[in-house]
Structures are given as C-alpha cells and as structure tokens.
Amino acid sequence: MKVFPTATYTILICGLCNQGLEGEAQQIFEEMEKKKCFPTVMTFNALIRGLCKVQKLEEAKILFFKMEIGRNPSLFLRLSQGADQVLDSASLQTMVERLRESGKILKAYKLLRQLANSGVVPSLFTYNILMNGFCKSGDINSAFKLFKDLQLKGYSPDAITYGTLIDGLQRVNREEDALHVFHQMERNSVSQFGLFTIILMKCYCRKRKWILAFSLWMKYMRGLPDHNNERLKLMEKNVDLGNIEVAVRGVLEMDMKCKVVESSLYNIFLTGLCQAGMLDQALKIFNVLEECKVSVTPPSCVYLINCLCHEKKQLRNVSPSTRSGISSSSSYSCGATPTAAPGASS
C-alpha cells in the first residue's frame, strides 16, 4: 500500500476545505492515520479551519483536543469514550486531579507522559483559527477560554488574536470586556495598536457612544510623543461640558504642532456625531477640519449630507466650494437613508 508524504495529504486537505468539501477532507485525514502517516500541525490547522468555516465547531474542538493527544489513537479513544469522557483540556485536568486525589499518582503521571510524548503541539495559528470560529458563531465564552488557555501554555497573543477577540466581544455587546482586552494589548505593546484604536472607536460610534470614542482617542494620543497629557485631559473635560468644537480644535492644534495629524480619527469622530444625531456639532467639526485643511473623506461627507437631508436641514454652514467638491466626489443620492451610508475611512 503506497503511503504519500504528509505534505501531500496536507495540500489535499487544504484544497478540499477551501472548496467547502470538509467531509472529504475528514476522510483523507482518517486515511492518513490508518496508513500511519502522522499529521503535522499544518494538517490539523487546515482541517480545523475548514470545519470552523462551515460552523462545525464541536468537531473542530474535538479535533483540537485530538491534536494534543497526537499520535496515539488508542489513547484518544480510551479518553473520549465511557462515562468519564475527556474531550478537552479542562476535563483532562479534572481526570488527572481525580487520579491524584485517589492516590493513583503513578497512573496520572504515566498518562501525562503519554500525552507529552505523543502530542502535536497546537500553534498560535491553531488557536486563532478556532477562536475566530467561536467568535463568528457567537460562542464568545469558548473563545475567551481558548484565549486564557493559550497564555497558560506559554503563547503570547498576537495582533490577530487580540483583534479576533475584540471583534467577537463587540458582536455580543460586551464593550467593557473588549476594552479590557484592548488595555491588555496596550500593556503588552502589541504592534498595530493604532489600528485597533480605530476599530474600537468605530464600534463605539456605531452604538452612539461617541464620548467613549473620544476618551479612547485621547488615550491613544497620550502614547504619542510630544503630546501634553494635561492638555489632553482638558480636551476631555471640554467634551464632558459640551464644548466639542473647542476640544476638537485643541486636539487638532496639538497634532499640527507635532506634525502627526491622523485624519482617519477625525473622520471617525465626525461620523460618530452624525450617528448620534448631533448634526449641529458635526457641522461645526466639519468646518473646523475644512478651515485647517484636514482631509474629510468622501464617505464622511456623504454621511453628513445624507443625515442633514434626512432631517430636512439646510446646508448653510457648508461653503459652496466644499459642497461642490463633496458632490463631485460622491455617487450617493441626497435622499439615501443615513444608516445605509458608509462610515469614516482613511
């Protein structure tokens, strides 16, 4: 019986999963084991990803655990059958603790040695794949459990790990937990911190929590060089008092002095004010940005115009030249529903 290299099986499994044929991919995987061709971490990753894509999360979880059990099918069968089923790391820990407490320390030790000697260690990519599947299905608790588990096993979450979890938490309206994960990301100095500031700001603005979005913006700016913390606190206080135009103008002056004006943050905040129905304030911010020659993106302009038209307001505060520029840069009609317009983008 001819046995193909593991790489050949892995490529075939990956291709089948990409075509949505996860059932055939599972058959190939089982054929590998029968032929004593042991899967690598890449093989497991390909099949787990395929199962997650078609929402077969329970099968993906079992495969993940089987990955840790590794090249000992009989051990996996023994643990996964019977009254005391072991189908994840938590239940395995419970079994080992029960053996230890009942005085069967040697048996527990042998079991752990078998696992250590036979397992294929999941990579961070494996965890990211499975977490993404859980988040998209709304099972955020399982995703959080994996997030903690990977750190206990010595992995450091990367930008993809944090981004996946933050997005999942936002999907189920757990903003506080998302912010907690965001702060952990900040403490660990993970790259692309600015990108996730933008993501969270957009999420808060969509939910009309523009004050939280502004606070997050100020927190991000405190980490930039040459930005005065006391002055940034004063800008937050101005927002709390309703002096939004004064606050944004102050932030902009500071940015221009430091020569680090990130127009995307201003655009997100402008759109956030529109989403909150604060059109008078949004118009004032628009005029400040125009005055200081900060680029206002076409999507932000369209959103503002659509909201004003929806509320049957006049565009008196927008200069004719700006109105003309907005019209030429946009293909959207003035009568569109505001919520259908795209958000700010850089």
TrEMBL record:
Biological processes annotated in GO: chloroplast-nucleus signaling pathway; mitochondria-nucleus signaling pathway
Gene3D superfamilies with a match to the protein in the record: Tetratricopeptide repeat domain (1.25.40.10)
PPR repeats, residue ranges: 5-39, 40-74, 88-122, 123-157, 158-192, 262-296
Low complexity biased stretches: 320-333
GO CC terms in record: chloroplast
Region (Disordered) residue spans: 320-346
Keywords for this protein: Repeat
Family assignment from sequence similarity: Belongs to the PPR family. P subfamily.
Protein name from the UniProt record: Pentatricopeptide repeat-containing protein
